[in-house]
Amino acid sequence: MKVAILITDGFEQVEMTEPREALDAAGAETSIVSPKQDRVRAWKFTEWGDEYPVDVPIEGARPEDFDALLLPGGVINPDNLRMDENAIAFAQAFLDAGKPVASICHGPWTLIETGKVRGRRMTSWPSLQTDLENAGVDWHDQEAVVDGNLVTSRKPDDIPAFNRAMIELLRSHASQPASLG
């Protein structure tokens, strides 16, 4: 199973690295997709974090080349992604196709812009509750919320529950029995 990780500068480092490690350990192939061309820089709680190479620039990214999408949070990252037409179209393609989408913390901001979350059950960082409810979401204050092909989570402390729910969702959508164990 191929998983796109859609990020730009300012993603919360642990919200990308820990889910990516869980995906890799489960046998998925992960790729960083970004509006940035070469490298993206993480945010590490209160300061800038590490840099990571971009595998696929968003301009050349094709949703049909991936089986699932991971949207890490951080404030800066999804605030910039939701203003990028290519990023929104990329995320929307996964929702339209019914492919698994996993989003944590502020990541759902990007999903709101797709116009495809009305009527869904979701969670997020608490400050996004009103934004999500205004977009027609049934918001829940839980570690991880699964609704069909969508799994969302609130914060870094919830990453273990998020990872379990994400891997289970991907396994249930795997096209090949050997994919993801």
Give a written overview of the molecule:
The chain is α/β, with parallel strands linked by helices. Strand 9, helix 5 and strand 10 form a beta-alpha-beta unit. A seven-stranded mixed beta sheet has the order 6-3-1-7-8-12-11, with helices on both faces. Strands 2-4-5 form a three-stranded mixed beta sheet. Helices cover 33% and strands 27% of the residues. It has six helices and twelve strands. Helix 1 (13-25) crosses helix 6 (159-173) and helix 3 (85-97) packs across helix 4 (108-114).
Summarize the structure.
The chain has 181 residues and is of the alpha/beta class.
Characteristic key phrases:
181 residues; alpha/beta; 7-stranded mixed beta sheet; 3-stranded mixed beta sheet; 12 strands; 33% helix; 27% strand; globular
Q: Could you state the order of secondary-structure elements as H and E?
A: EEHEEEEEHHEHEHEEEH
Oligomeric state: single chain
Low-pLDDT residue spans: none
Strand portion: 25-35%
